Amino acid sequence: MDGTTYYVPAVAMAAALAVKGPSLLRSWRDPLLRSVCSLMALTGLVFFFAAPPTIAEVNDLLGVTNASAPLVYCLLSAFSAACLVLIVNWRGGPPESTRRTSRRWITGYGVVIVALVVLFALGDAPVERLRDFDTYYADEPFVREMIVLYLGALAVAGVAMNVMCGRWALQVQGRLRAGLLIIVAGYVCNIAYLSAKFTAVVARWNGGDLDYLSTDVAPGLASVGAQITAVGFCVPLACQRAGDAWSTWSTYRRLGPLWRELAPVSPQAGRAVRMTWWSPVELRVTQRESDIHDGMLSLYPYFDAELRARAHDAALAAGSDPGQARAEADAAMVTAAVRARAADPEGRVIDSAEPAAPTGSPSSAPPTASPAAPTEGPRDLVRMSLALRRSPVVAAARNRSACRPRSEFPERAR
Question: What is the pTM of this model?
Answer without folding.
Answer: 0.62
